[in-house]
Amino acid sequence: MQEDLRDLLAELLGREVTAVRSEQPVPAGGGATGAYVTDDGRPAATVVCDLAFAARAAAAITLVPPPAAEEAIAEG
User: Which domain holds residue 28?
Assistant: First the structure.
């Protein structure tokens, strides 16, 4: 599953991405979570990322200028 997520993010962001399994998925300082479900609504995977990645990836995908993402990170 992590390979699928890695490939999806690499395609969206247009750059190399690393995705790893974690036994303790809650990043220090908070972050963002996402849930992937099957076609019939059953949970398939949970994704957790730190705030910096969430802000920068969201900015890149939505064409928000990088300084806006950096400001959001600084504000927490």
Answer: 2-75
Q: How many domains does the chain have?
A: 1
pLDDT 10s digits, 29-61: 778 888 989 999 999 888 888 888 899 999 999
Contact 51, 30 (CB under 8 A): yes
Q: Tell me the C-alpha distance between 16 and 75, whole Å.
A: 27
* CB neighbour list of residue 49: distance below 8 Å, 6 or more residues apart: 27, 31, 32, 57
Please tell me the pTM assigned to this model: 0.70
